[in-house]
Specification:
263 residues, 11 helices, Nucleotidyltransferase, domain 5
Length: 263
């Protein structure tokens, strides 16, 4: 089978970049720098969400599914810098050429990773290939919105209509999956400031498993999985998560009722 790589990132304000661009005084705290950027953004267009190029990657979590089984983990370690996380993500693509799957990956995760790879100098020739090296990539590469090497399920299910976009948490719960467990994106920066990076990584991992579960349901709808294969895959995910360390997995499984597809 073609390896499947489901991914999700968590970000924080790029305080170093904000200091560089706006020449904030050294005495200004990181929190004050970030707050100033948020307030400027809100005054500009009413949104408190920073532009993509002013985010920094705090965590990247992945589900990797291939002939060897199902795995979920966050890249690197809590002690690793951002460059290691970004490099590890593109290294997986370089090695395995997987099917990428995301929820809003085209709208957020990948543009952020593009800007951070550019700023950090992280090469990713397989990812950026549009047929220069591999002729097959000329007609199907990772960068094309309507190409299949990257499936952004939010974009695809909405028929590329932003007015029809839906949050992952809602869709996961409507499908009978656990959804978000205790943390949401708005809490990532405060958690990071308090040194609670492991909680951010745990939260990111549960998000990426929710994404994989929705992907499995979608594959069933498309006829790429039979009902029996779908049920077997869901059972594999349950059993795999039950064997993992971390207090977030028992809570995730407790919030996941056992269901079967309707006949």
């Amino acid at each position: 089978m073609t390896p499947v790589l489901v991914f999700d990132i968590e970000t924080i304000p790029d305080v170093t970049g904000l200091r560089l661009l706006h020449r904030h005084p050294d005495a200004m705290t990181d929190d004050a720098v970030a707050q100033a950027a948020v307030e400027a953004r809100q005054a500009q267009n009413g949104s408190t969400f920073l532009p993509h190029h002013l985010h920094r990657v705090a965590a990247i979590s992945c589900v990797f599914r291939d002939d060897q089984g199902f795995r979920v983990r966050s890249l690197g370690s809590p002690e690793d810098g951002e460059a290691r996380l970004v490099a590890d993500f593109f290294r997986v693509i370089q090695r395995y050429t997987p099917q990428l799957v995301s929820w809003n990956g085209s709208g957020f995760d990948l543009p952020v990773l593009h800007y951070r790879a550019l700023a950090l100098g992280v090469p990713a020739p397989r990812y950026w290939d549009q047929g220069e090296e591999d002729r097959e990539f000329r007609w199907n590469h990772y960068l094309g919105r309507y190409h299949s090497r990257h499936l952004d399920m939010m974009d695809f299910l909405a028929l590329y209509n932003s007015r029809a976009y839906a949050p992952l948490d809602d869709i996961a719960r409507l499908c009978g999956f656990p959804g978000k467990q205790g943390v949401d994106g708005a809490q990532v920066w405060p958690l990071y400031q308090r040194g609670r990076l492991q909680e951010i990584r745990d939260y990111c991992e549960t998000d990426v498993v929710n994404t994989y579960l929705v992907y499995c349901r979608f594959q069933f709808l498309r006829g790429q999985m039979s009902a029996a294969a779908y049920e077997a895959e869901i059972a594999l995910v349950r059993s795999s998560l039950a064997e993992l360390e971390g207090c977030h997995w028992p809570a995730f499984l407790d919030a996941w009722p056992r269901q079967q597809l309707q006949p």
